[in-house]
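Exercise 7. Predict the joint structure of the components listed below.
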Amino acid sequence: MVIILDFGSQYTQLIVRKVRELVFYAEVLPFNASLKEIKNKKPEALILSGGPRSVLEKDAPSIDKNIWTLNIPILGICYGLQLMAREFGGEVISSSFKEYGPVLLELKKEAIQEGMPFFHNLPEKSQVWMSHGDLVHIPPPSFKIFASTFTCPVAAMGNPSKKIYGVQFHPEVAHTTYGKILLKNFLANIAHLKPDWSLKSYLDEALNNIQKEAGNGKVILAISGGVDSTVTALMLNKAIPDQNYPFFVDHGLLREGEVEEVLNALKNAGISVKLIEARKQFIEALKGIEDGEKKRKIIGNEFIKILEKESRAIPGVTHLAQGTLYPDVIESAVSVSGVAAKIKTHHNVGGLPANMKLKLIEPLKFLFKDEVRELGDILGLQAEILSRQPFPGPGLAVRIMGEITEERIKKLKKADKIVSDELRKWEKYSEIWQAFPILTGTKTVGVKGDERSYEEVVAIRAVSSDDGMTANWVELPYPILKEISERITREVEGVNRVVYDITTKPPATIEWE
Ligand code: XMP
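Solution:
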């Protein structure tokens, strides 16, 4: 177990990813986690992340002092290094020269003489990724300087007898050429950990935990048809086969044929799910609403009403299971601790009403999306669900600009089917993170036959992404775009123009609302 104490760096998730790629297991705790909380996890190594704040600020984020004397190896990265320097009597200054981006790192002879095996297999000169304004000017008396850059005198330092090391650069970033080797050296050579983490062992432990957490209680689970909730359902089925009650809400804002597809796929996976038909309820509630955030709120509220009704209908329900993933957990933990700016506001299901008193079971809360897909594969889930593109909880509602009507939903469903059919036909579907049409709410002039038309513009968005936090638009080949455009203007009534969205995230978001 490697614990990463998070100071709000944009790279914290990358540290976890890199550690797991090296087949060690890592979890993140907020920097202000108590000593007890940290000890409970039985960490064998600690990593202190970078962060947006400065150690020179009056109320700079810090860690429980006793952590330094836990006698386990510690690696400080960027802010973590500077905190370490201050703690042990070194000097940190605000530099007038801010290093950002790739920089040449030069090892000192001390690295070869005293810094081994931390620097094992690192060349004398290599590229590292920097992102800092402050720097360590004078290292603590008991620390050796192991590397520097042109403008940063202490780019790596350490106290080998204490097994405490710090680097100013970011070894977790791919642009640090030997970063992964350095992390491996720290974990394998300094902390003496064995690279033996596997999803199979995660699964066994997670199934045990579900049994423990649920006890004799009953667990309800809302299935969306996506990978996360389906894998959660499979795990519940394995761990507590007679105590779980999955249901699937048809809110009428799903894609063409989706209800049948999801039910079928679940049936094939051995999950019998209750279908809750609630189209009318949602459409009525959304009547006349044009604002995207209001739509989200209304859909969330209606969903909670159904959840409450379901939980009342099953006597003895004690838990609600959710397919929450690790990026959301890390993000909310850090935003609660107040050091990182909140980037995204939407999560699977918003807060539960206080009077519901259901406890949460979140068996995927330490996993990333690709790990969940791998887990699904281990559990025997079919490729069609595993390769499904993510779909937002509020469904097509956030892709219809302006008021949602039955007619506009039909229009969008038709366009959506054309986009996904074409991408499947051209074998592009599974390599794209998300691809979908949007009803823009804008009307333009066109000619259809010999008649003037004044109809709606449909936009197509196709993006590649690793986690939905940032995204690039996909350079779809023209013949595919041509076919999609021709089919939509020909087959979808009330549309006379199709445009392609060529904006990255940021500054745009993936969904239009
Ligand atoms: P944005 O539009 O913020 O989307 O770039 C990032 C990812 O989140 C999905 N998304 C949502 N998922 N409820 C959800 O469960 C929502 O309200 C919601 N809004 C966006 C979006 O599809 C993309 O994968």
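Discussion. Residues 296, 344, 346, 348, 390, 392-394, 398, 434, 468, 505, 509-511 surround xanthosine-5'-monophosphate (CB under 6 Å).
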